[in-house]
Structure formats: C-alpha cells, structure tokens
Hints:
The chain is 36% helix and 15% strand. With 530 residues, it is of the alpha/beta class. Strands 1, 2, 5, 6, 7, 8 and 15 form a seven-stranded mixed beta sheet that branches. A four-stranded antiparallel beta sheet has the order 10-13-12-11, covered by helices on one side. Strand 7 (181-185) and strand 8 (192-202) form a beta hairpin. Helix 4 (79-98) packs across helix 11 and helix 6 (223-230) crosses helix 14 (487-508). The chain is globular and about 65 Å long.
Amino acid sequence: MVRKFDFLVIGSGVAGMSFALQVASAKKGKVALVCKTTIDEANTAKAQGGVASVTNLKKDNFEKHIHDTMVAGDYISDPAAVKQVVENAPAGIERLVNWGVNFDRKEDGTFDLHKEGGHSEFRILHHADDSGFEIQRGLIEAVRRHPNIKVLENHFAVEIITQHHLGVEVNRQTPDIECYGAYILDPDTGKVDTFLSKVTLLATGGIGAIYTSTTNPDIATGDGIAMAYRAKATVKDMEFVQFHPTALYHPGETHPAYLITEAMRGYGGILRLPNGEEFMQKYDKRLSLAPRDIVARAIDKEMKIHGIDHVCLDVTHKDAEQTKAHFPNIYAKCLSIGIDITKQYIPVCPCAHYLCGGIKVDLNACSSIRRLYAVGECSCTGLHGGNRLASNSLIEAVVYADAAARHALSVIDSYSYNTKIPEWNDEGTMTNEEKVLIAQDMREVGQIMSNYVGIVRSDLRLHRAWTRLDIIYEETEELFKRVKATRDICELRNAINVGYLVTRQAIERKESRGLHYTLDYPKHAYDYKN
C-alpha cells in the first residue's frame, strides 16, 4: 500500500508534535504523525524537572544561560546552536503556552522558577514535578484538534527511503542523498506500507532502552538514529550518553526507572551515603548541584568504594508540607514503596537517561540527507556538547522544531513525490524459536552496554563490547533477511546499530571529556582508577 503526505513526522514527543502543529497551521498540506506506540508514550512525558528559559530579566540574562550551557558541555558545544536555543527559548515557551501547556505561576502571575544543577540562576519553568507529562498533555490535545494532522498510532518506521531503494549505490561519500519518505509497518495488517513524503522529520527520541536500567520507556531503542545511519546520514557525538545521577533505586523497575528530578537537589536535597555521610565535597565545590556527569561519576565511585548498590538523597531537613507541595508525584511514588521522603532518605543510583549526540543537523535542523530533518533527542544540534545542562532538552526540541518548520515551509513547494519507489518485499515468516532468540539478544545488548560502555569506560571494555556486538549484529542481519519485518526484530537491529555507534565513537575519543570518562585517558583531577 502506498500513502502520500506532504509532511511525514516520525515520533510524537514534544519535538514531533511541535513541528507538526506549526507546519499544519501553515496549511501547506497534509501531515502524518507516526507514533511507535500510543501518542502519549514518549520520553517527553517522563521529564519531571521542566524547561530552561530566561524569563526573570531582573536577575537573569541570555549571557548567563549561554555560559552555563557551555560550561556543562565542557566547551564542546557549538556556540551558534547554544545562542539560537537560548535566545529563542522565551518565544518557544510562549508557543507552548498558546498550545495549552500550563506552567506553575506565583500569585503575581509570574512563572514559579526552579534552579537545577549547573544553572547559575532560577530559570526552570515547571508544572509541579510532572512538567513533561503536562507538556505532552497540552500538545496532544492541540494535535488531536487539528484537522490537517493524521495521527497514526502503533505504526513502526522500518527504513528511510532514499535513492538506495531505486537501485542506486549510496555510500557516505555520495553527494545529494535524498529522502523520499519511509517504509512503515502497519500492525493491523502486518504489512510494511510505503509512505511517500515531500519532507520527512525524525523525532524518535533517545537510546536509553539499550541499557539494562534507564529512565526512558522501553520504546527508546534509537530507531531514528539507526535508520538515518543506515541511510548514510552523518551521526555525531554518540559517546556522550548522560546517566542521570538520581533514579529511584527500586529493584525490578528498570525500564523505565523512576526519575528523581534534579529540581529536588536545587530545592536543597543533599546526597549522602546510606549511613548519612555526605560525599560530594570530595568531588566538586558545587556539591550536590554539580553538573550531572560529575555527580553520576561521584555516585558510581562511592558505590564501588563501599560495595553498595545505591546512595541516598536527603530532603528530611526541609519543611514537610512544602516538600509535598513541590514534589507531589515523587512523594506519592516513594510512599507507595514504603518511603516517606519527609522523614526518610530516598535511595538513588545513576542510570541511562539522555543522549547528547545523534543525527548531525544544522541550525535549520537539516540532516546531511536532503529533505530529511531531525529534531529532539535523536538529533545532534551541537547544543549539549559533552554534557547536557539540566532542562535544556525540551526547549531545544521546541526551538529546533520551529527552525525545521520554517525551513521546510520555505522549500516544500520545490519538492514532489517520487512515485518510482518499489513496495517493501514482505516475504518470510517468523517462528516462536526466533522470537526467543530476539528477546535474548536484546537482553544481551543491554548487558554489554551497561557493563562495558557505561559511566566509566576503558579501552578493554569498549573493545570487548565492540566484539560482542559484532557477533550479534551478524546473526541479526542474517535473521532479518529471511523473516517478515516485525517491531521486535527491527528494534533489535536498531539497538545493535546504536550500541555500535556509541562504542565506536567512544573508542575514537582519546580523552575524558564531558560524559565520556575513560580510565585510559583520565583528564579530571580526581582519580577513578580502581
């Protein structure tokens, strides 16, 4: 089956929906919003902390936000990208509000701002401690109301369509690779349909699910990055995987692990060992409010030193009613497992959280493949550099969705559909035995990435990961060629591709920088050799 849309948007988080709303409102054609599961399941909905933007001009300014972002990124960030996001953030907030997103305000009507690790001022807009859920809710309602947007839930993008599918040999040196749409699996028919588009946008989120423990949902298998890489797009900075320092330690809940927002440390939470001893003074003068990479490595170090599986976050010294009011969902979650955070420490540990790299894009969110845009966590804008500053991700998605929409609208009239694209070859069958193999291989990918390509790395660990992943890759590609495309085997292919990219680019970086810390090339003053 062949379907045609002017704009094909793959992914339904804040990035995909922001873009869809903007291009749909321009009335330049039909928009397909393809969701891997349901429209409400996205990393956006898991974000608790909020959105960073300069709004209090009496105390804050763009220069401070730019400086904080560059420092957190270990000065690898692209200054032009940082400037674009910071200076366009207030307009992005205004768009979110106009779409129906509510942020907490003070009695005088001004935004109630939080402060998080790495920020020099209070500039985090939030909605209690479920800001991402509120943003997702507001955007979903706006998308559902829009007559020009066709929402396709439980549809899975299998491959990006380029000249390769017309029999043209395409490699990474091929000039002017073009995207003509995507092959997308329809769960109702079990068939892979051909979606032709004038413009395609990838907003497929992150890669957390390739690790055994992550704050991301199970769907975060790096699908967009893997598809773009196979289509010969440029992929950059994949070694910079952010591990959130404070996920709730609750064995059995690993996909997703429950996030304890950074705003809780901004509120005054103190990191301690289970015996009550503080430890962050050994690692950074900013203590518990140091950037995430420093805090995550410090916790990892303390866990190894003491042979423990978690540390603790303490807010028992804060006013109990205020704590409940600021963090109602965290309070309720912890209470559900027998922890009253107003009286007891919260057990926390680091887990995979956010990818700073991805599909390389320019200031218009254009990838190296013509007619293919990438926005949100699957993209590498250059904003985050070696380490993302807390709460910069959602605003990056909103700002770059706007840039992509403006650019796409300015050029779409010059594009047409490529009607010569062949339909997907769906021969093959899958047995229950093969499904067991796929599930086992996915578990093995998670173990490889967590054990060898985690918070602290070494050449030995990275090369071991490379070798193991290569074996699984060969087996999976052989299997993929002889079975029908299903979501589980496609996710496995993508997870392996992305794991390989993280590992390879980690091997290539011969230094410790930002989120990439290796024992073979230590840079920082404190020593993690153990």
